[in-house]
């Protein structure tokens, strides 16, 4: 059985920015607080993290090579802003929400990315400013919609900044 979720009556602004770094093949949430992680769920290699049990999922990240994305015209579902909380009590990492690898679609015109079935009807929940989950009648996630800021290469920017302040560029960390 896949993980089930509760749609809260409330929405807590998360104050995070979701980016996609094409040179790292990954999604990353910037400005994340330095809280401890309560739990994490996975769909394919995307990780959905909660820092606070009352707020629910607030962070999206993970490996997702754009070469696997299927080009397709996408229209994101109309969604209500709500907090998305797991049904039941979870601690730490919860392995995959779904057991099979979901297809991934991308629309370069709208910049929407969809992991799962983009045509699946259900309850659409906008749980951060740039992320929507579609839940079926059993409250299982059937699709995740992401609208990230695209970053093509931040290595050059980091090297220029480091050189300007006299840091040896070979010591620059790749991760944020």
Task: Provide structural commentary.
This protein is mainly β and 176 residues long. It has 1 helix and 16 strands. The protein has one helix spanning 155-164, and strands at residues 5-7, 17-21, 26-30, 39-43, 46-52, 56-63, 70-71, 80-81, 84-86, 92-94, 104-107, 112-116, 123-128, 131-135, 141-146, 149-151. It has a 7-stranded mixed beta sheet with strand order 10-4-5-6-3-2-16, with no helix packed on it. Strands 7-11-12-15-14-13-8 form a 7-stranded mixed beta sheet, with no helix packed on it. Strand 4 and strand 5 (46-52) form a beta hairpin. The chain is globular.
Brief summary of the model shown:
With 176 residues, the protein is mainly beta. It is built from one helix and 16 strands. It is globular, with a radius of gyration of 17 Å.
Task: Record the SSE blueprint.
Layout: E1 5-7, E2 17-21, E3 26-30, E4 39-43, E5 46-52, E6 56-63, E7 70-71, E8 80-81, E9 84-86, E10 92-94, E11 104-107, E12 112-116, E13 123-128, E14 131-135, E15 141-146, E16 149-151, H1 155-164
Parallel strand pairs: 2-16, 4-10, 7-11, 8-13
Antiparallel strand pairs: 1-9, 2-3, 3-6, 4-5, 5-6, 11-12, 12-15, 13-14, 14-15
